[in-house]
Amino acid sequence: MSKAFTREQDGADEDEPAPEAEQPQGLKNYITPAGYARMQAELKQLLDVARPETVSVVHWAALNGDRSENGDYIYGKKRLREIDRRIRFLIKRLELAEVVASSGQEQDRVFFGATVSVRDGAGRVSRLSIVGMDEVDPTRGRVSWVSPIARALLKARAGESVTLRTPSGEEELQVLEVEYLELP
Fold this sequence. Notes:
Layout (H helix, E strand, L loop, with lengths): L28 E3 L1 H30 L8 H26 E3 L15 E5 L5 E7 L10 E3 L3 H6 L7 E6 L2 E11 L5
Parallel strand pairs: 1-2, 4-5
Antiparallel strand pairs: 3-4, 3-7, 6-7
Helix pairs in contact: 1-2
């Protein structure tokens, strides 16, 4: 059979949703306004810039003849599938998103959107922000509201101690400060 009539496989069926697009059962997809705006901007960039450019490259490569050994065509088709998968993921996540604006709130308890300073048992102070599942960025101190540390901190007040349960055991954390900041 000619290769022209076989379906290209990249490890996932194109009609299948990406596994990361699945929302855990019973959990809401909370997101901060900034996180929602970032996801919308990424979707717009993919639809308006990345996808049209890739389609143009694939079209050009297809005009060059034999597609079975045409690296530009093969890579372009693969990249196009990746872009389309990401677009479907973003559309689905944005549809499920519940934007929670909590910046500027005068609350002394930890809830979604809070930026919390904590001290661990070794005396190390860390600062983290509780954000949505699609906004997690450990390098910037952003943790999901469903993470173990966020679950331990929820509803705590400044000055209180909470117990963080980890696979290596329990750890006491002292809440030093609770703020509701505009997260960039």
